[in-house]
Amino acid sequence: MLRDDNSVAKILIDFSFKNINIDPIKSLKSKVSTGKDKMPARLEIRLKPELIDAEGMGISRKASAYFGLNVDDTRVIRVLTIDANLSNDQLEMIRTEIFTNPVTEESSFLPMANNFDWIIWVGLRPGVRDPAGSTAVEAIEDLLGIRLNQDESVYTSKIYQISGDLKKRDVETIVREILANDIIQQWRIYKRDEWDDTKGIGTNIPRVALDNQPYIGTFPIKSRDELKR
Q1: According to the model, what pLDDT value does residue 207 have?
Q2: Most buried residue, 32, 49, 172, 221, by most Cβ within 10 Å?
Q3: Where is the signal peptide (predicted)?
Q4: Per-residue pLDDT at 3
Q5: 99 in any annotated domain
Q6: Residue 204: its pLDDT value, please?
Q7: Would you say residue 205 lies in a domain?
Q8: What's the structural domain count of the chain?
Q9: In angstroms, rounded to a whole number, what is the distance separating the alpha carbons of residues 15 and 171?
Q10: Cβ burial 115-145 (10 Å sphere, 16+ → b, else e)
Q11: What's the predicted TM-score (pTM) here?
Q12: What secondary structure, in 3-state letters, does the chain show?
């Protein structure tokens, strides 16, 4: 695998948040989120189209240099999946106040990918620690003056929109050798004609779900000697 950062910690998605100076008067009244009827929201953030995407350029160059693949362009979209009971006003506040730099970035709760031949989504597998997601939770709580419930969280991932004359096996090579670590990450690949512009990648919640139920029973013990056995 040809990633520059080989450690598990550095492979995790790196999100940078704006500096936040919380005004307690403007902050919402402190409370605990109820977690009832919550609908996960997917926030997508990308560089403005007129700006050079250095990360995307690096991916294109590696694909060409190492594997001889014809990648014309790669653009990266950062994704925050917010699994919490927040109002539309709260979501808009955190979009503009925390996660989007208005000078260099644009963001939306709707799919943003356009002008591509292939889409690659890469996210963490269920159960893998998401430090950037934890930092996002802290930033949201500080800005809104609330505390999220234990079952509420934020998950980070990335979308790579790639342009070029590529076969699916070529795109799979890019994913496995450049973009993702199969041990801790999962991914999906979409061709342009498979992509739904209204749905996008959908909502991906990498939460661990355990189906087993604990068993509680009683066992008669007639003597201490039997207990020792």
Answers
A1: 79
A2: 172
A3: none
A4: 57
A5: yes
A6: 82
A7: yes
A8: 1
A9: 24
A10: ebbbbbbbbbeeebebebbeebbebbeebbe
A11: 0.79
A12: CCCCCCCHHHHCCCCCCCCCCCCCCCCCCCEECCCCCCCCEEEEEEECCCCCCHHHHHHHHHHHHHHCCCCCEEEEEEEEEEECCCCHHHHHHHHHHHHCCCCCEEEECCCCCCCCCEEEEEEECCCCCCHHHHHHHHHHHHHHCEECCCCCEEEEEEEEEEECCCCHHHHHHHHHHHHCCCCCEEEEEEEHHHCCCCCCCCCCCCCCCCCCCCCCCCCCCCCHHHHHC
Domain encompassing residue 124: 8-228
Spell out the long-range contacts of 124-127 with Cβ–Cβ below 8 A and sequence spacing 24 or more. Answer: 124/12, 124/13, 124/155, 124/156, 124/157, 124/184, 124/185, 124/186, 124/206, 125/184, 125/185, 125/186, 125/206, 126/206, 126/207, 126/208, 126/209, 127/206, 127/208
- Whether residue 61 is contained in a domain is answered as yes
Residue 110's CATH number: 3.30.1280.10
Q: Which pLDDT does position 15 carry in this prediction?
A: 56
pLDDT at position 39:
80
Q: What is the tens place of the pLDDT at every residue in 161-188? A: 999 999 999 999 999 999 999 999 999 9
pLDDT at position 106, please? 98
Q: Which residues of the chain have pLDDT under 70?
A: 1-38, 209-215, 217, 219, 222, 224-229
